[in-house]
Design a protein that fits this description.
CATH topology: Trna Endonuclease, Chain: A, domain 1
Strand order of the largest sheet: 3-1-2-4-5-6
Structural class: alpha/beta
CATH class: Alpha Beta
Shape: globular
Number of strands: 6
């Protein structure tokens, strides 16, 4: 596994957020796969920007895993019955990303049977009205000022 280097603006926001966590980060986690979750044949695969699973052991160093480094069954074993942060990233807080995180939570729960899913939206620019919507729905909004846009 090579060290992850953020490639674009959204990666930079995700990296800044993850670097303050105590968990491993899984990038571009697929949902809607026919192999897990009993999805209809016409379902399209979608991807969650990031999933953070807190380390159960203090001595474990958090790592970043890209989508080529795990199988669906490995993810099921990692996420099942765990508390995870489900993360969507956009430059601006908007209705699209709120919809992504809501749909992502439901689909992730069906596919991976996580115990608790904490929805997180990372963005550089907030919107007071949409931040209110997120608070109402228990969606964590983290506004990150990224210096290298």
């Amino acid at each position: 596994m090579e060290k992850w280097k953020p490639k674009n603006f959204e990666d930079k926001l995700l990296y800044q957020y993850w670097s303050t966590s105590k968990g491993s980060l899984f990038l571009e986690v697929p949902i809607g796969n026919r192999g897990l979750g009993n999805w209809p044949l016409e379902s399209k695969i979608r991807r969650i920007d990031g999933i953070i699973v807190s380390s159960e052991k203090d001595y474990e160093e958090p790592k970043v895993f890209n989508s080529k480094e795990y199988t669906l069954n490995e993810l099921l074993n990692l996420f099942q019955k765990k508390t995870v942060e489900l993360i969507e990233v956009k430059k601006n807080l908007n209705r699209l990303v709120i919809g992504q995180v809501i749909a992502g939570m439901d689909m992730f729960e069906r596919q991976y049977q996580a115990n608790i899913i904490v929805p997180v939206i990372l963005c550089q620019n907030g919107d007071p009205a949409l931040e209110w919507v997120c608070r109402k729905r228990n969606i964590k909004v983290q506004i990150i000022r990224c210096t290298n846009s």
